[in-house]
Design goal:
- By secondary structure, the chain is of the alpha/beta class.
- 43% of the residues lie in helices and 12% in strands.
- A hairpin with a 4-residue loop joins strand 5 and strand 6.
- Helix 8 runs antiparallel to helix 20, helix 16 runs antiparallel to helix 18 and helix 28 packs across helix 30.
């Protein structure tokens, strides 16, 4: 039995602040529940800080209400920290106060001025979201980040973010034209470059605005020589409080230089006007391979002489991880394998411009240098030409941050000294010493970065649950800080200071008091993201220290090691935030996209299950034994009903908050395929549901869903009666009101037996298969039935039978047996294991006869490869092929000429299929090509159905939102849209009243003409 749990309550003054904020007219959301606080306690760093609450302002006026209230003397102990995408590696947005999340609502692109090349956006706009809106105008926002699909503009400004191409395009600060911020006390501050006359006016203002301008001008006028001496002459300069650029190249005074990179410690950036640039019309990426990572680093200086747009580097550790990732199938051609001379380092060198001939000429000259220069041994190079090819390779490079967390075992690369910057010409020697330092501690590590800017991301591998290894964070940080200073560099070249701010006084030296004075003008009582970058002169609390902040590992080690290992697909989440992908046409986590609530993301759900496991252990509950030692359903019933009554009374239990997050998951498994760490929410969701419903009684809905595969064959004996009952308004209303199910599918009354007889289909019995000759086996196939295409979409199953028959193959129909997927999704794991064992035993016997097995629905078919493999004893469950996998072997290479048909089709693939079998969509394209048909894969997110999710009444609003975000926008494009998933086709029928075809129906139609 699991325990009833409650989380830590907020400190007393914070509920009072939230009540006052609500009374002030605040229109956004306020949340102090433990689930929200837990999810916001981590980012992509090694730290964990539990906030007291979170607020989600609706607009700038809401932010002003927050800032006004916190300036009142009674609330001077309140701390607030702004948060955007929450992907920082240094804990910049982590706080033990209140999180002000500016991403949920303040994410609108307000204005695009194409003629003058600028945009005006709210702080919560995601970089890729902005660039998607700019692309039709031929423009883009230049600072490039590996987290660009989830990093917000506000977060980029607050960390002065930069990445690939920074030597050409600069940092975020270089593209900020104007900022609108809210200061402590609620005053609005509009900052832009000012002439001296305008500066005089600004300094003459009353209130906090005038005070900050006066303070900044005094520092600029009195500390100019010190600023010139201390600020390094690096591409990355100093992120945060950038005094060196208070005067721009035109001599204007620009306060944005200190706001960019300030990490919210000076005020709340709510809106920005940004410079945007024309997109280069043509790009070529030269992928240079080396037998040594140090060779790649040492070669960078010579390569820089050719003035490429950028040079990115990746070491062998990252490269090997990429080869195991979903991304590799799209880039393998650019990195040919050589067993005798393995690639241990690569440089990605980009050339771009508007004229193809000019770019190609530069590439030709560069390649000639590679061929003539023998000072560095290179293994070879390849060219990725054009936007699509370059994007594919950079997608692999962008995933490096997450991929480094996907190594085997508990010792994993950790980000705590990972964005140092030194002069590029000294990078190789610096890294040699850096490596010697880590080697001296016996540590392994991964490296990637921007060698053109002298920035390399180095992540030492540690098991942060081991106190001895966690204790290395401080001495290694101290040593790297000293080493970096000695090489004329910076400890924080790219990702901000955050919880590593203790080294700021050493780097700023005599200039540090000037920073304190500036902080005091903005935030005299140290309430805005305190402990980061600097503190006001008289602050009671100093800078946070890396060994005095709670680490994730401090809490993780409280989880029993057996439990930790068992729930690895959850607890190994490193917070990289790939699941926060904003793109509605990407399959990753539809529930996050629809709700914008972070607990409804893989990262959020992983955080919750991690904390839930910790609290269960603290309550002396062994969840592994709880799962194994269940009493009978009937014996547990009184306890569950009693607990249900307690829940209905509102009795607190953190398990309910975890349940709400798990129940919102569609179980589409996109996370399992796309997450670099392979966080698999459906897997640990099922395990949680099993344990949760050991304590709380299930709703009737769960039993109906779980039993569907078992009951439907019996219902099919009287399809007319079943359909009449299920189709009646009275029964539909009853199911919706009292069971929570709606739009239940009806049994199709297609005469399947006639098709089976016409195509000479036989039952797949062992005697029938064993009597086949070897030649007959090669021309036979066993069709594995699933409940959905067998009973609800019978014509599709008949079409596949006809297709196989038309190709000259013999069809054997496997006996219908429940697949068990609905049981697994609902957490009936004991029943699922029994169904899987029964089914796998049957499939193995059939497969042993040497005839391939094929299933129609991808979601059901892939269960044999995934969930079945994790049931003890079923590790050798035979592979059941998807239709296109079988067709790739069965269909001749050139069935028809390419010009035989002008028809063009678009494939809208099932999200489970395309994310877990990434080659599957390309296989359909090849099948169509062999028939002289053109098929292109449409970029789509989830349809919003995913099994029975869309049929549950509680999910209707979210299901429709998901559908409208992506699929609804693609249906009317030119070319017939095809769908591989039963759930996808049924969702389109439900939401758009349109019938979509499966690709195999088009294949059959083509073969019959």
């Amino acid at each position: 039995m699991i325990a009833q749990l409650t989380g830590a309550a907020p400190a007393p003054q914070y509920p009072e602040f939230l009540d006052a904020l609500r009374a002030s007219g605040f229109r956004g959301q306020l949340s102090a529940d433990y689930a929200t606080r837990t999810v916001l306690a981590t980012d992509n760093s090694i730290y964990q800080r539990l906030p007291q609450a979170a607020v989600f302002p609706l607009d700038a006026d809401d932010v002003a209400r927050i800032a006004t209230l916190m300036a009142e003397p009674r609330f001077r102990q309140i701390k607030l920290t702004p948060r955007g995408g929450g992907t920082g590696t240094n804990g910049q947005s982590l706080t033990d106060g209140i999180v002000v999340d500016l991403s949920r609502h303040m994410n609108s692109i307000l204005e695009i001025n194409v003629a003058e090349r600028w945009v005006r956006v709210q702080a919560g706009v995601v970089k890729d979201q902005l660039n998607a809106a700019l692309k039709p105008h031929g423009l883009f926002f230049a600072p490039e980040l590996s987290t660009s699909n989830r990093a917000t503009v506000g977060g980029m400004i607050n960390t002065d973010a930069s990445g690939q191409g920074s030597c050409t395009y600069g940092k975020t600060r270089d593209h900020v034209l104007e900022l609108h911020s809210v200061l402590l006390g609620g005053e609005h501050l509009h900052t832009r470059p000012l002439s001296d006359a305008e500066l005089d006016v600004a300094c003459a203002q009353s209130g906090r605005s005038g005070e900050v301008y006066r303070s900044a001008r005094q520092i600029q006028e009195t500390q100019a020589e010190l600023i010139e001496a201390i600020f390094p002459k690096l591409n990355r300069c100093l992120t945060g409080y950038d005094l060196a650029h208070l005067r721009d190249e035109q001599g204007r005074f620009n306060l944005n230089s200190v706001l960019c990179g300030a990490e919210g410690s000076l005020g709340y950036v709510v809106e920005a006007r940004l410079n945007v640039l024309p997109i280069p019309k043509y790009s070529v990426l030269v992928n240079v391979r080396y037998s040594s990572f140090m060779d790649a680093l040492r070669d960078a200086n010579a390569l820089l002489a050719h003035k490429p747009l950028s040079i990115e580097t990746v070491d062998s550790r990252v490269l090997m991880l990429a080869m195991k990732d979903i991304v590799w199938h799209s880039v393998a051609e650019y990195f040919p394998a050589d067993a005798e001379r393995p690639t241990l380092g690569i440089n990605l060198v980009e050339f771009s411009g508007d004229e193809v001939e000019e770019v190609n000429a530069r590439v030709t000259a560069f390649v000639a240098h590679l061929q003539a220069d023998t000072t560095i041994e290179r293994l070879g190079h390849t060219l990725a030409e054009g936007e699509a090819a370059v994007t594919r390779v950079y997608t692999m490079r962008k995933r490096s941050v997450g991929l480094l967390g996907n190594v085997e075992g508990e010792i994993r690369p950790q980000p705590f000294v990972e964005d140092t910057a030194v002069p590029p010409e000294r990078l190789a020697d610096y890294i040699a010493e850096f490596r010697a330092l880590l080697d001296g501690h016996g540590l392994t590590y991964g490296m990637f970065g921007h060698v053109d800017a002298g920035v390399l991301h180095v992540r030492p591998a540690l098991d942060m649950k081991d106190p001895a290894q966690a204790a290395l964070v401080k001495p290694i940080s101290d040593a790297v800080a000293e080493l970096t200073q000695r090489y004329g560099g910076l400890l924080w070249g790219e990702h901000g200071k955050g919880l590593r701010s203790e080294y700021v006084p050493a780097f700023f030296g005599e200039l540090y008091p000037a920073l304190q004075a500036l902080k005091g003008a903005f935030d005299p009582y140290n309430q805005l993201n305190p402990g980061k970058i600097c503190t006001p002169p008289d602050a009671a609390e100093g800078l946070l220290k890396v060994n005095e902040v709670t680490l994730r590992g401090d809490l993780d080690r409280q989880i029993d090691e057996r439990v930790w290992q068992s729930f690895g697909t959850a607890v190994h989440c490193n917070g990289n935030g790939a699941c926060y992908n904003f793109d509605p046409n990407d399959a990753m986590c539809p529930s996050w996209k629809a709700t914008r609530e972070r607990q409804h993301s893989p990262k959020g759900r992983a955080s919750l299950i991690r904390e839930w496991l910790r609290l269960q252990g603290a309550a002396s509950i062994d969840v592994l034994e709880a799962a194994r030692g269940r009493a009978s359903w009937l014996k547990e019933l009184p306890t569950r009903l009693r607990n249900n009554r307690a829940r209905s009374r509102g009795d607190a239990d953190f398990s309910h908050e975890v349940y709400d997050a798990m129940a919102g998951c569609l179980a589409c498994k996109s996370c399992a395929g796309q997450c670099p760490i392979k966080v698999n929410v459906p897997e640990f969701r099922s395990r949680f549901l099993e344990l949760y419903h050991g304590r709380y009684q299930r709703p009737l809905r769960d039993y109906l869903i779980g039993s569907l595969e078992f009951s439907i064959p019996y219902m099919a004996y009287a399809p007319g009666l079943y359909n009449a009952v299920m189709g009646s308004k009275w029964v539909s209303g009853l199911l919706e009101r009292h069971v929570g199910m709606l739009d239940s599918p009806l049994i199709h009354r297609y005469n399947l037996q006639a098709t089976l007889s016409r195509c000479n289909v036989r039952a797949a019995t062992l005697p029938a298969l064993r009597e086949l000759s070897d030649e007959q086996r090669q021309r036979s196939v066993v069709l594995v039935q699933d409940a959905f295409t067998r009973y609800f979409e019978t014509p599709l199953l008949a079409s596949f039978v006809q297709l196989v028959h038309q190709l000259g193959y013999r069809v054997f129909l496997a006996p219908y047996s429940a697949n068990g997927k609905p049981l697994h999704v609902q957490g009936f794991l004991g029943a699922f294991a029994k169904a899987a064992t029964r089914n796998a035993t049957q499939l193995k016997a059939l497969a042993d006869c040497g005839v391939p097995l094929v299933g129609l629905d991808p979601a059901m078919t892939l269960v044999y490869r995934q969930e079945y493999q994790k049931v003890p004893g079923l590790e050798d469950c035979p592979k059941v092929l998807l239709p296109q996998e079988w067709l790739m072997d069965a269909l001749p290479e050139a069935t028809a000429s390419a010009s035989a048909s002008p028809a063009a089709f678009r494939l809208m693939a099932h999200c489970t299929e395309k994310t877990n079998v990434p080659a599957s969509t390309g296989q359909w394209e090849k099948v169509f090509s062999r028939l002289g048909l053109k098929l292109t894969t449409e970029a789509t997110g989830c349809c919003g159905m995913s099994g029975t999710y869309g049929h549950e009444a509680r999910n209707q609003e979210t299901s429709r939102t998901i559908f409208e975000q992506s699929w609804a926008t693609k249906l009317d494009k030119q070319g017939e849209a095809l769908a591989t998933g039963y759930s996808c086709r049924s969702q389109v029928k439900r939401m758009a009243d349109r019938q979509m075809r499966h690709p195999l129906e088009v294949v059959l139609e083509r073969l019959l003409t």
